[in-house]
Amino acid sequence: MADLTITFLGTGTSQGVPMIACDCPVCLSDDPRDKRLRSSIYVETPEAAWVVDTGPEFRLQCLRERVRRLDAVVYTHAHTDHVMGFDDLRRFCEGERWLPIYAGAETLADLKRIFFFAFNGENLFPGYVKPTPKIVAPYESFQIGATTLTPLPLKHGRSVVYGYLLEREGRALAAYLSDCKEVPDAVVERIRGVDVLIVDALRHREHPTHMNITEALELAARVCPGATWFTHLCHELAHAETEASLPTGVRIAYDGLRLEL
Ligand SMILES: [Zn+2]
Ligand SMILES: [Zn+2]
Ligand SMILES: [Zn+2]
């Protein structure tokens, strides 16, 4: 087994691809890589496994990838496309198992508001989600098993959200920056030369809260990773055509893709 395996549970933007009631070529495409559930990754190491975000299709994603083990959940932010599968975490809480939930203070406050029944301490029934909140802060690293995770503050519209750097034995294996418009210099310094950069690249046109392909390529040039994978993609990007237009070392992620690091 690799030291750390990342499986893309979803690579789509908030509406998913295909979008409801859209007849564009990508939404009608036969290429399975053009079917994108909401963005999330599943991370496995020999001693622990966790997800980053639980979008609305979390249950279907777990079934598709046969996810059986979950020791923690890590959140980037509380937009609905990243949290709405939260209630399906209950399957991983059976047998009085409490699940550590790592998130920034604002995101945890949002989770407590949306899923109050899981956090208010009054519903300790078997079969309910049993979350143990763990507040994380910018650049304050924490451990899941032998992996060190470092929250990276990113500008995503008006909010500051977290990307995460994953390191093992001092090696910077992956940086996951799923939703962002601006990446501060301090974050670039922290992740420079990482083996794998996974980053928001919504579409070709500009967007107020997400990077487009040009901005994501500029970021990759600043970070100088071993490889770059674009995620959080909308229906304006056809997988094959877009990937063919990218420089060497930059790829388009797709649902079900596994990276062994
Ligand atoms: Zn999103
Ligand atoms: Zn479409
Ligand atoms: Zn978002």
Question: What report would you give on this structure?
Answer:
It is a single chain. The protein is α/β, with parallel strands linked by helices. It contains seven helices and 14 strands. The protein has helices spanning 58-64, 80-83, 105-114, 116-119, 185-191, 213-223, 239-244; strands at residues 5-10, 40-44, 49-52, 72-74, 99-104, 131-136, 142-144, 147-156, 159-168, 171-177, 196-200, 227-231, 250-252, 258-260. The strands form two sheets. The protein has a seven-stranded mixed beta sheet. It has a seven-stranded mixed beta sheet with strand order 7-8-9-10-11-12-13. Strand 8 and strand 9 form a beta hairpin. It is globular. The model has no long low-confidence stretch (mean pLDDT 97). Bound molecules: zinc ion (ZN) (3 copies).
Write the layout of secondary structure elements.
Blueprint: E1 5-10, E2 40-44, E3 49-52, H1 58-64, E4 72-74, H2 80-83, E5 99-104, H3 105-114, H4 116-119, E6 131-136, E7 142-144, E8 147-156, E9 159-168, E10 171-177, H5 185-191, E11 196-200, H6 213-223, E12 227-231, H7 239-244, E13 250-252, E14 258-260
Parallel strand pairs: 3-4, 4-5, 5-6, 10-11, 11-12, 12-13
Antiparallel strand pairs: 1-2, 1-14, 2-3, 7-8, 8-9, 9-10
The structure holds zinc ion (3 copies).
